[in-house]
# Entry
Amino acid sequence: EAQVTQNPRYLITVTGKKLTVTCSQNMNHEYMSWYRQDPGLGLRQIYYSMNVEVTDKGDVPEGYKVSRKEKRNFPLILESPSPNQTSLYFCGVGGYSNQPQHFGDGTRLSIL
Amino acid sequence: DQQVKQNSPSLSVQEGRISILNCDYTNSMFDYFLWYKKYPAEGPTFLISISSIKDKNEDGRFTVFLNKSAKHLSLHIVPSQPGDSAVYFCAARKTGANNLFFGTGTRLTVIP
# Structure
């Protein structure tokens, strides 16, 4: 079964404490991406990766880092989280050449 | 600058009737459009898509219509069922790109 797995699903933390949200896939897709969903704004892309060691900024990259050291994993790193990064985050997989992206179940982050 | 817009935040429909969800876009470079359905505490699930070379795509109870001159697409669900109650997101992709631009979503409630 095709799966996109995000961890943790929920996290409450404090400003400045580094955190990592993991995303793994078993679909062998080269393309992976991160989105955040905020009320009234829909989903906005943070970063994406075309392949291992190839990453690029999306529409709202400020305050985030990513890495792609292996094909199946694409972690999202918040080096110094701030309250404006409180949001619902989704990892997307696939979507190349008129194929749909598939999403994980989301990670709800609250930064106090 | 919201390039994909869903102007109706919510829609209520009686079971068995037609649901029509609308989406407008501003960027003429978009050539592939998708609809996603989202239940609470889950990620968006791909529903149906349409390429800009078509004006209609049908899959069971779901039909998407594309009017390129008006930069408008719509999703028709016939007949609507209570299990269709969810938030529906319209998304679009530019030629040669992978990242999706999402609308803000429409919450559909199908009343039994």
Remarks:
- The two ends of chain A are 37 Å apart (CA to CA).
